[in-house]
Amino acid sequence: MGINNIDMIPFGSFRLGKIYGISIEINYTWFIIFGLVTAALAFAYFPTLYPQLSVGVTIVMGFITSVLFFGSVLAHELMHSIVAIKNGMEVKKITLFIFGGVSQLSDEPETPGIEFKMAIAGPGTSFVLGIVFGLIAIGSSSIGLSPAIFGPFVWLGIINILLAVFNMIPGFPLDGGRVFRSILWAGFKDMKKATKIAARVGQGFAYLLIVGGLIFIFSGLLDGLWLILIGWFLNNAAQGSYQQLLLRDSLKDVNVEKLMKADAEAMPAGTKLKDAVDEYFLKSNKAVLPVVKGPKADLIGEVRINDVQLIPKSEWEQKDIEQVTKPVSDEEKVGLQENAMNALMKMSETKADKLLVVSESHLKGNVYRDDIMRLIKIKSRLSR
Ligand SMILES: [Zn+2]
């Protein structure tokens, strides 16, 4: 489906693996759509078209077709991501979820040309897959193979073409909306203006889906519910993408250093567990504290109070915090010179309200979500 910079995906996800260094994640909501597609194919679509096949056969067909379908969705997203990476962009992950797939980038493309190529790569892939599956279907049915073989390819061919067409609707943040934006952007030489227009068209299309869905439901077709859900999602995505662009714009010259507070409480390496609890955890009232070493405060890790509690109290006076020190993950820290928007995005991903600020592995302080939000508010008031 789309290429996005924000995380609009609900609930939890787990990692399936990595392809070309891109993390592939499956959101739990994806199992709903996988189940629905498999069931619809196995119990409705295939039995209606090919009544001569047994239920056992259509169930296997449904399952295999569904796997190939989501494989096609993944191929679509991968092509977006590969083109993005080839053009110097960073792709955080690809997530499959209830409404398809999303490639999450950590930044906007730099030029309209890059955006155009990146956006068109997805629908282009779906289109080619549609043709290939269609040819396999025609080939296998013309040499007299069973519908159990060619049936899935007929459906895969049609659905991939439909996927290409749906995604080319010119409403941001659908792929077509990105293509549309890149053309407006090249014309106006103004990305903000282009995004505003493309997002409006996207919202217009979303409302159309919702209204269409309501009409369906009132005429007794429950499928309308699906249109309403997709419309609602697209509307949120269009609004979210534009708002995020405004945020990024207002923070474009602000780096973490400007907003950082040099108030990071840290424990020196070698601190005994007893002192860590009495002097640091109890006094600071925090559940996690960083550990530093040397005069320049090299960040060597962090300690969670829960891990300290796993060690018997009788050993707290002998053992030091290195016993329970764990490395600080990239999600918990940000570089001093990084853009404040990156810090904000990291925090919104992990629902954290602050990050550790580091410079060449030295701990410098904390950056807080509230401080970034306050600056955004002030800036938006000034620009009105
Ligand atoms: Zn796409």
In short:
The chain is α/β, with parallel strands linked by helices and 384 residues long. It folds into two domains: 2-250, no CATH class; 256-382, CBS-domain, CATH 3.10.580.
DSSP helical segment count: 12
First-last Cα distance: 34 Å
| Shape, principal axes of CA atoms | globular
Low-pLDDT residue spans = none
Helix coverage percent: 55-70%
Order of helices and strands: EEEHHEEHHHHHHEHEEHEHEEH
> Strand percentage, roughly?
15-25%
* pLDDT averaged residue by residue: 86
Largest sheet geometry: 5 strands, mixed
Structural class: alpha/beta
The largest sheet has its strands arranged as 1-5-4-3-2
Compute the number of structural domains.
2
The distinct ligands, each listed once, are: zinc ion
What does the radius of gyration come to? 26 Å
Count of distinct strands: 11
Family: Belongs to the peptidase M50B family.
Membrane topology: Multi-pass membrane protein
GO molecular function, one term: metal ion binding
Subcellular location: Cell membrane
Structure commentary:
- It is found in: Cell membrane.
- Its cofactor is Zn(2+).
- Keywords: CBS domain, Cell membrane, Hydrolase, Membrane, Metal-binding, Metalloprotease, Protease, Repeat, Transmembrane, Transmembrane helix, Zinc.
- It is a multi-pass membrane protein.
- One of its GO terms (molecular function) is metal ion binding.
- This protein is α/β, with parallel strands linked by helices and 384 residues long.
- It folds into two domains: 249 residues, no CATH class; 127 residues, CBS-domain, CATH 3.10.580.10.
- 57% of the residues lie in helices and 16% in strands.
- It has twelve helices and eleven strands.
- Strands 1-5-4-3-2 form a five-stranded mixed beta sheet. A three-stranded mixed beta sheet has the order 6-7-8. A three-stranded mixed beta sheet has the order 9-10-11.
- Helix 3 runs antiparallel to helix 4.
- The longest helix has 32 residues.
- The chain is globular.
- The protein starts with a strand and ends with a helix.
- The site of zinc ion has 7 residues, from helix 2.
